[in-house]
Amino acid sequence: MALTRYTNQGIYANAYFTMIEIKELHKSYSMGKSTLHVLKGINFNVAEGEMVAIMGSSGSGKSTLLNILGMLDVAEEGTYNLDGKVIKDLDETKAAIYRNKFLGFVFQSFNLISYKTALENVMLPLYYQKISRKERQKSAQKYLEDVGLGPWASHHPNELSGGQKQRVAIARALVSEPKVLLADEPTGALDTKTSYELMDLLQKINDAGKTLLIVTHELDIANMCKRIVHLRDGVIVEDKKVNQVKASQYVE
Amino acid sequence: MWSRDRWQEMFYTLRKNKLRTTLSGFTVALGIFIFVVLFGFGNGLKNSFEQFFVDDSTNSIWLYPGQTEKPYRGYKAKRRIIFKNDDLADIKQNFSFFIDYITPRISRGALVKYAKESNNYTIRAVAPGHQFAEKTMVTDGRYINERDVKEKTKYATIGRLVEKDLFGNKPALGKNINVGGISFKVIGVFKDAGGDNEERLIYIPYTTRQQIEKSNDRVDQIMVAFKPELGYAGAMAFEKKLNTFMRKKHNIAPSDRGGIYVRNVADEFRQTQNIGSVLQYVVLFIGIGTLLAGIIGISNIMVFVVKERTKELGIRKAIGATPKSIVGMILQESVFITAIAGYAGLLAGVGTLALIGDSLEDYFITNPYIDTIEAIGATVILVIFGAIAGYIPARRAAKIKPIIALRDE
């Protein structure tokens, strides 16, 4: 299995190490008397090193799925395995520890802490891992440089452009070296050019071996992934490999 | 829990959110400040009431002669009653069981001279027991004694300020002063806690005064000190018996409202003590009220603070903060702010009280103060309630699912 960590291109995912495995996932929200059945039995695996786009119109359940995968929400039925661990009946503390160790989040609205600088925002996940300040500073700086924001380390979020903010968020998601990066409409608040630059960054991160799940409703963004899972009304209607469009060709 | 890292993170957060920090700190500081000042004022008020009695002993009954209002046993109304030496003797004889000591008092004003200095003072002619009645503290020499009374000596015990006025900084002891034309030898100097007026008095033997005034045997007032072990009820009974005895002796109708006036210090003291304890309750009420207001203030601030930080807490949770660390963070911040601000308010309050000092004495606020224990206790209570007030919304915030906290408005 160790081999799969280094070979991640062009082969059927199931043949490799399974990072995410969900079976018969159900989720519904009760709204007073009526219940809204959002996820109606989702079966879906992601191998290590995959870059999966989850597509669907609003209300299709794609964000709910991502939240369950991110342990920000819990399913009512079905099983969820992450990196071989059964994710079930987690209390808040355990969920927090798993999130910190296994998952990195990127949100549409960046969700940076406004009173902290870019560097301090990136340092924060390591703070919760009880890593020393010096170490935190060192790795945070490295990840900021990886996303091309080394010189911006001491800037506050309100001094950064949207694209830069999202890069900081990506650096923050990566700094704890998670197994999976979950991105919820990461380009939703960005213009096309910036979106492509960001996708270029995400592709490079994926090329380096990281597993990525990206929720989007934009086809061009989805086509920059390696696989598209199409959700409609709480079920997967399509799950296909695609020829990845390299974002770098749009970036000069 | 108390790692250096955590403190650093906290200080950083507090520094970066100055408005929030100042706002909550200010509420606490103000609450404690008002508490300390009001509580101190209450204590000052209590002090004023107690001070009325510090210079007098509380086991004394004063008898004043007056005019009768009713005819009785052949005597007409409007007769002036006069106390004489035999009244002293009779009281002593009949009530020896109840009496601690007895003293007359004859007060006269006189011009007193020494060398080139002169001034008008009140001269009190008394018996030795008077020293205890007024709690006079002799600092130099001695007080009037029994021999002085017996031999009608021209000796005087003078107040500290009389000495200062007439002798400057030199000691008066052994010198002769001219009191209304008659030479008296100063045999003692005294202090009195009752204030300046009490220290501008001169005491001489009452028999000497009687001799000066054409060898009469009249006394103005009589003070009878009962034995303290009589207790309050015993004192009241004694006062009644004494009154009856004196009325009978001077042929005053028992129902006459005039004739003899009796002032029982024990009774007055008790009444004042009652007022004092009412004041104590008022002070306590004010204290609890201000504290309560402070607690409510802190609670509101904490709810606001947590509400304002909901999104930040959601972000922290999403990137791995445990609920415990969220609650811990908010608690640590709130306890820290309330403790520091509370301490500042405490210092400011105590400082204000010290600054006020005795300047409000005219408004019955004497030496306002607050016990260290009371002040610190109040601060600790505020800190604890601040923590509780912070804990409840913090726990709720820690329970909120990150997706809800992060949901875009």
Please render the helix and strand layout as text.
The complex is a heterodimer of chains A (252) and B (409).
Chain A: E1 18-31, E2 34-47, E3 51-55, H1 62-69, E4 77-82, E5 85-86, H2 92-102, E6 103-106, H3 118-127, H4 133-146, H5 162-175, E7 180-184, H6 192-207, E8 211-216, H7 219-222, E9 227-232, E10 235-241
Parallel strand pairs in A: 3-8, 3-9, 6-7, 7-8
Antiparallel strand pairs in A: 1-2, 1-4, 4-5, 9-10
Chain B: H1 4-16, H2 18-54, E1 60-65, E2 83-84, H3 85-94, E3 99-114, E4 117-126, H4 130-133, E5 137-141, H5 146-151, E6 155-159, H6 160-167, E7 176-179, E8 182-191, E9 201-205, H7 206-212, E10 218-219, E11 221-226, H8 231-249, E12 260-264, H9 265-308, H10 310-318, H11 323-356, H12 372-399, H13 402-406
Helix pairs in contact in B: 2-9, 2-11, 2-12, 9-12, 11-12
Characterise the protein shown here.
- The complex is a heterodimer of chains A (about 250) and B (about 400).
- Chain A is of the alpha/beta class and about 250 residues long.
- Chain A has a single domain (about 50-70, about 90-250), classed as 3-Layer(aba) Sandwich (Rossmann fold), CATH 3.40.50.300.
- Chain A is built from seven helices and ten strands.
- A six-stranded mixed β-sheet of chain A has the order 6-7-8-3-9-10, with helices on both faces. In chain A, strands 2-1-4-5 form a four-stranded antiparallel β-sheet, with helices on one face.
- In chain B, the strands form two sheets. A six-stranded mixed β-barrel of chain B has the order 3-4-9-6-8-7. Chain B has a two-stranded antiparallel sheet with strand order 2-10.
- Chain B is of the alpha+beta class and about 400 residues long.
- At the A-B interface, α2 and α3 of A face α1, α10, α11 and α13 of B.
The fraction of residues assigned to DSSP E strands of chain B is 15-25%
Report Rg of chain B. Answer: 34 Å
Average the pLDDT over all residues of chain B and give the rounded result.
Answer: 84
pLDDT < 50 runs, ≥5 residues of chain B: none
| Known CATH architecture of chain A | 3-Layer(aba) Sandwich
Number of helices of chain A: 7
Helix content of chain B: 40-55%
* Cα end-to-end separation of chain B: 34 Å
Most extensive interface: A-B, 32 and 28 residues
